[in-house]
Amino acid sequence: MSMDLFIARTMTTKASLVFRGSIGITQSQLASLKSFHVRLMSIVLDVDVEPSTTPWDPAKAYLFVPVVSDNSVDPIEEIDWDQVEKIIGTDAWCNPLQRARPDVYLGTNERTLGGDRREYGFGKLRHGMAFGQKSHPTYGIRGAVAQFDVVKASGLVPDWGAVETQKHVYFPKGKLIMADTSTSAEDLIGRIVTAAHSGKRFYVDSICFDMTAENSFPRKEGYLGPLEYSSYADYYKQKYGVELIYKQQPLIRGRGVSYCKNLLSPRFEHADGESDESVDKTYYVFLPPELCLVHPLPGSLIRGAQRLPSIMRRVESMLLAVQLKHIINYPVPASMILEALTAASCQETFCYERAELLGDAYLKWVVSRFLFLKYPQKHEGQLTRMRQQMVSNFVLYQYALSKGLQSYIQADSFAPSRWAAPGVLPVFDEDTKDGESSLFDQGRPVTENTNEKNQPWDYEDDEMEDGELESDSSSYRVLSSKTLADVVEALIGVYYVEGGKNAANHLMKWIGIEVEFDPDQIECTRKPSNIPDSVLRHVDFDALERALNITFKDRGLLVEAITHASRPSSGVSCYQRLEFVGDAVLDHLITKHLFFTYTNLPPGRLTDLRAAAVNNENFARVSVRHNLHVHLRHGSSALEKQIRDFVKEVQVELSKPGFNSFGLGDCKAPKVLGDIVESIAGAIFLDSGRDTAVVWKVFEPLLDPMVTPETLPMHPVRELQERCQQQAEGLEYKATRNGNVATVEVFVDGVQVGIAQNPQKKMAQKLAARNALVALKDKETAEAKEKDEENGKKKNGSQTFTRQTLNDICLRRNWPMPFYRCVNEGGPAHAKRFTFAVRVNTTDKGWTDECVGEPMPSVKKAKDSAAVLLLELLNKLYS
Fold it and tell me: Which residue intervals make up region (Disordered) (predicted)?
């Protein structure tokens, strides 16, 4: 078993599981491995537990242990026992700062203090104090900061300054004085250090021998104001109250040890215009060695162990799929079953949506065939209702519940913070644990517990992760009925792909959908066609069969397929029953063709292809292209006029080179023209002995040209909606009717941009949306041309004047940074518009006039608009 892990934006690695056989270990060895496992995973998952007291769940009986690289014959010899004993035997675990959650111990954990993840503890701390909750002594504007003198007084780190002679002790070159020991600079590279002043951990990337604490402190990226700290030593003194003793020591360059991430989701993707350099940028910090504690766990071990939650999540999911496979009892790969059980909300590289599309079409087809053959006396309306009662989402949902599929479905994005390793249970920062306190809470009186949920100041956390619920969700999940119905269809699709119709029928029988019938019994119930000769003489069978490129054995089926209900004829039924089964067989065959032709197409695009290929409008145009409409037997003059008008419109469409609307033309097709295409498909299916291969052989050339991803048209209403969503613009339709004419107006941000009239409201809406798109595109073209002309005047070389240009000018002239002010913020929630004004205080002319920009859909664009106007003003003042 192998899987892809998305380590970074541009880095993917493959993890594989290899079975090495059973091993025999002693009781003492098992205790050592358990202790190592708990120490390792407590750091990885940031859960402070003790190996001797932690509970073990028998349902998760596995351990993570280090192994050596050589492949020994005996698997037990592959375990790195030296590292196990070294890690579990060290005294470093006695220091609370070396165990999990040191920031909680120091009182600097933002979420424990009620802090907002985005504001480093500022927002909710302020909220909590407003309602009388106790404030924490480490509270600060940019996050909680521990008082280092209290840390030293607690004995967690030695007080080097208390020993006067320590300042003059000579250390050999390459040695570093750490917070609790001295170590070789070479040995420190690749290790993890804990910052004693903050409780944060860092990977040691290198030792900067050319930098000391007396070096100047750098500016923050993008900050152009005055320097706040003169040196690193000044920074630590002002912010943390630390008076560094060994300022001449080289600094440690490190990068933060992050929490476990969901490595199964390819969420690291390039944004538009983002370069590889910016994507792969790593942020480093520079730490004085005397503030750092060397962690007992190697950095490489932590980095590797942080992948384990994602690996085990996939293993656990695969085990569920294997279990379901054994229950269904049909040889289908477990990986495909897992795909059918995985929802798109998991944000993984696969989901059930493609298989669900295929399974939906196949299920509709087999149920339609079953009902058509079993109930020859039922008309089309009755058959449709019976099919709905067998395959509706609610019915499939009931089938799924009866088989317990809800226990196997993966519907939530993996959250490592809620994943539990054996012996290491997850801890949620929002829940207060009994006995958990910070260093600064020691010595304070313990107040009685109160039920905070009943307090009037209780408030919700609107920053929950994907898959989280407001309360404890460890005991239940929320799944919609449609999700369970979709999984049933996806399982049908997967079994059809892997094992054909036999496998799919086996799955449907297991789930409870009975569609099997006795072929001999069906043959006996079918009556031969008995069409009067007077009717047969008026049908041009040669031309019709030539257009279809097939010769019918029972021409009575063909006559029935082209007979409309308005044409009364003794002995001839109308096409509705054949249309019922033909609609299902064409849907199945076209969906199957698209599914296996475009294997890499996303589910959404595949659905659009299917919708464009399988619709009455497209089938009506197929009927006209191959002159099937001229053979229609009907008795309605109004219908005849509709057909003539539609044929003229289609001929105009066909006269355009390379044009194919695939049912999205400007003329509404008479439904009867699409129906006879489907009824002919049903007639071919019966005449060929229920062979779908013959049906596809006939219809594949008839449907040519088939829609492709390149030729797929987008419905004007949908295209306009997506465009307005991207531009953050408000879209509104207003429809009125005057007699037989419907009028639809399109408004974007309250401005009318399109209008159309048509007897049918939906067609009027489509035409109005199309007119609006043309008007908006013309407007964008004109604005782009005007902007290009303006940019020609506003550009200096290749640099466009923006906010950054204005900031650079202020920096060069030693002016304060520009002052921006929000003048107006309006519009609906989904289409906000911002207007900003800007001015700058020049040293020689004072404050400039305030320049107000144009309303923009984002704050950044609004500030840019104002900055451009101020730059023009400065250019006039100083030119």
Answer: 433-470, 780-799
